[in-house]
Amino acid sequence: xxxxxxxxxxxxxxxxxxxxxxxxxxxxxxxxxxxxxxxxxxxxxxxxxxxxxxxxxxxxxxxxxxxxxxxxxxxxxxxxxxxxxxxxxxxxxxxxxxxxxxxxxxxxxxxxxxxxxxxxxxxxxxxxxxxxxxxxxxxxxxxxxxxxxxxxxxxxxxxxxxxxxxxxxxxxxxxxxxxxxxxxxxxxxxxxxxxxxxxxxxxxxxxxxxxx
Length: 212
What we know:
The chain is of the alpha/beta class. The protein has a single domain, classed as Vaccinia Virus protein VP39 (Rossmann fold). The protein is 28% helix and 26% strand. The protein contains 6 helices and 10 strands. The chain has a 6-stranded mixed beta sheet, with helices on both faces. A 4-stranded antiparallel beta sheet has the order 1-2-3-8. It is globular. It starts with 12 loop residues before the first strand and ends with a strand. The model has no long low-confidence stretch (mean pLDDT 96). One of its GO terms (biological process) is methylation. It holds the Pfam family Methyltransf_23. Keywords: Methyltransferase, Transferase. InterPro entries: SAM-dependent_MTases_sf.
């Protein structure tokens, strides 16, 4: 059995890789790779994994990791720009970094900061670091985030990218049971075309899309 692509919804999906207990599929249109929906964790199981993370607001190593997105995003903003850190986790260090730099940033996380009122506002920028690989419906979520951006707004994403099938089979990133969607550069190029966005890649895992 195969499943429609969770990014673009197309049904032309092929088997990509199998590693017990999960199978992985790839969409022929947007090239998203995704795991077998029947093997997804429950919400409680998923949160139990996140609760093991020890990322804190003041951790200098965590801040250095987040700076891969923070620095190129900051350079694209004017002081006072308002943002949303979507999927901020229990230790919202990135939001603190933006706050400290003069960019007030709201928080949202379905497990830790489930304040849905923050999803009813408009923003100059939105960040999602190590988030999209966890999403059951990434196409729907990203489009909703896009709709919250003002013209000229920036959507910054950090996620590891699929390179090819040979690399995928050795890739530790796929082994995390909470990681269920894997984007390639082409997936983001397809998405940017759909959203009519200006697309920029920074390093190996940072993507910024600008709303025209």
